[in-house]
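Can you please make up a protein's amino acid sequence together with its fold in token form to help me picture the idea?
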Amino acid sequence: MSYELNRLLAARKAPLPTSKTVDPVTATIIRGAMETICIEAATHLGRAASSAIINQSNERNGAIADAHGRLAGAAIGTPHLSFVTQSEVAYGLMKQEEYDWGPGDVFLANDPDYGGGHLPDYCVYAPVYSDDGELIMVQCLQAHQGDTGGKDPGGFTLEATDIYTEGLAFPCIKLVHRGKRRHDVFDFIVRNNRLPTFAGDLAAMIGGVQHSVRLLTDMIHKWGAGVVKAAINTNIDQTERRVREVVASWPDGTYEGTTWIDADTQGIKDVKVHVTCTVAGDQLTVDLTGTDDRPELVGVWNTFSNSRSYIMTQVVAMMDPTINKNEGFFNAVRLVIPEGSIAQPPPNKPAALGSFHPACEITEAVCIALSGIVPERAAPQVYKMGMPNAVIGFDENGQMWLEQGVDTRTHDASAVKGIDGWGACPNALGNLLLAQAEDAEPRFPILSKSREMVTDSEGPGQWRGMPGSTNVKQVLKPAMAMAWMVTQEHPLRGMCGGEDASPYANWFDVGTAKERKVPLAENAQLEPGAVIAYTYGGGGGFGPALLRDPQAVLEDVLDEYISVKRAHEKYGVVIKGHFDDYNLEVDLAATEALRKAMGVEDLREPAE
């Protein structure tokens, strides 16, 4: 790995060579077919895999790269996975001759230093050829796997200082050669994974891409390779053109955003992410210069490709949602990611935890910066937990089980202009769902005691964030719990005058003499019957809270999202009556007086 390799993987790539032209309607039909095939691939994986994080939580995504390594299409999936896959494929394309690419082949990649995200995100991909043997595109499936064969189960090591501690890294390895599985390679990879379900999950990924390759081959046969290549070129060019049109409508200028991680996994405090967004005509530049680069930091290293992906996840969210998501975004937006910073680390840095932080802080900082231009779309694409509680144990046969904390909760669902925060999880997680207790409890010796939203945990605002929640679980057999806690001192930011959400918190051995709040990072052994409680922060608010409709504040009190006291202190709303008597109502005169005293007139925009 080298910084030079990163530059090569991220370099602008040429259009596919073709003498054919295509009209916009045909290009759209072909794009739609490719996206549908990506959805089929992801659905195949979700139904065929057996691990909860894939078949229950849907942490997987289908995408297509073209023969030059450009993102040509993607499914509706986990957004940040949509924009990292093509970098892994681009490395494989550089090695086509050495690795003997051909029809029927299937490859695996996950190496953070060769275009990947973090090690648990496995990318399985297969080339698609025309009838005369020309490589046209590559079908990909990306999914989070529960283990990576490293020092600690699950692939997350709190004290890791190199990538080798975290598990096996594959720049590009062939799983299937000319349609026949390479059993030696497959068995080697499975042997170095603790989860008994992994063999089936990996096989499901292989089957998903093979199914999609057949569909794409039929599509190429129907339209012809030249027309398909022309359609890919047209769609990428259209996206670049539309992105530049949006940027040209923005005011020229420099817009900055700064966010912080409480501490790295070893306690080094206040890890900084800084973003400068510059608009000059139709050119948007996103520059991470000023982001932390202290070499002694542990656990807060995001990969170069992952940093590009998270930047783009937020940029996409700030623009017209009808713009197609493909390489055109990368062609239109200039990204500056300093070498040696936590957003582009030196070789062999551990990266497992970097996909939480600083990845989320990168998107949050971009959102803060661009909120001054497009406040109506300023919804941070983040999930701010340090990491969910991972609970790990072994059954009587010595097989590992891993409950990754991907179950139902509410957290980080921020408001946007005109809409309160809502739902169980932030839109950054896209199609990712949260597993149900009814599914988790038969799989693992863990009892879900309660899941309750926390009153007064929303970010106050003219449109308020969604409250967070506390999940309480009891382990029924000896287990190990691993946690890294951030977002206690630097919670999720409110936007455009909205207030920050509540901080996160985590407790182990609840109700015993050993009960303790996890201050930063802990890898604890839990006895049978031990209880853990994880409190997720809510979403940030949007706009000044004093401008919120008093009747909406009353509804929040009735729904127990906020208390009467918070309505008074944060929203300047006086509520009279008694909750138990069902006669609560807004005292309009007292509310007007209170808000005037709190300075509401200074917050209102002058009438036009």
Notes: The first helix runs from residue 3 to 10. The chain has a mean pLDDT of 93. The CA atoms of residues 251 and 279 lie 7 Å apart.
